[in-house]
Amino acid sequence: MEAFGVSRTVLREALRTLTSKGLIESRPRVGTRVRPKRAWNLLDVDVLDWYSRVAEPMAFALNLQEMREMIEPYAASLAAASHTDDTFHALAESHEAMVAARNVDEWVRADLQFHLSVLTACSNELLIPLGTLIERTLEAQLRLNAKRAEVFNASLAEHTAVFEAIRDRDAAAARAAMAALLGVTRGRIEG
After folding, report:
1. Residue 107 gets which letter from DSSP?
2. Which end of the chain has the lower number of beta carbons within 10 A, N or C?
3. Is the model's pTM score more than 0.90?
């Protein structure tokens, strides 16, 4: 309480929040302890955001990339097979924004919306929330990748291939195009 200049009530509420998120545990006569990292719920938006700020940057980026490589190609194939007019319209708008982007900030906003739109277009209600979960950390990764590229929109052709395959309802091509796009992303992370 002295270190942070907070009241007992604020401290209790903070401990309650950390306990509910699985980061700490309190036991009578033992006290409050930090739980092992393997017990943390990194699928909680706040916990993931906090962890991304203190984790070793390269290891975290590669872990996020592995998760994306497992999910996004399949989501793209689902989007090709099952997008609606509304979800495809959102994807088309984000692709148009990528084409029109004139700087890194515009590109990153459009790129993030593109990937979130693919998840939404896949029409799987269990995959859609993953976009919300990783949105903040994905945005940071996209920004880093855009800055590492020779030009911020260097991956426009790969995004366009994903977009066109989804538009054409070609699930196999959408999956392959997203895998290729993520391969370029991995190369920039590791490079």
Report:
1. H
2. C
3. no
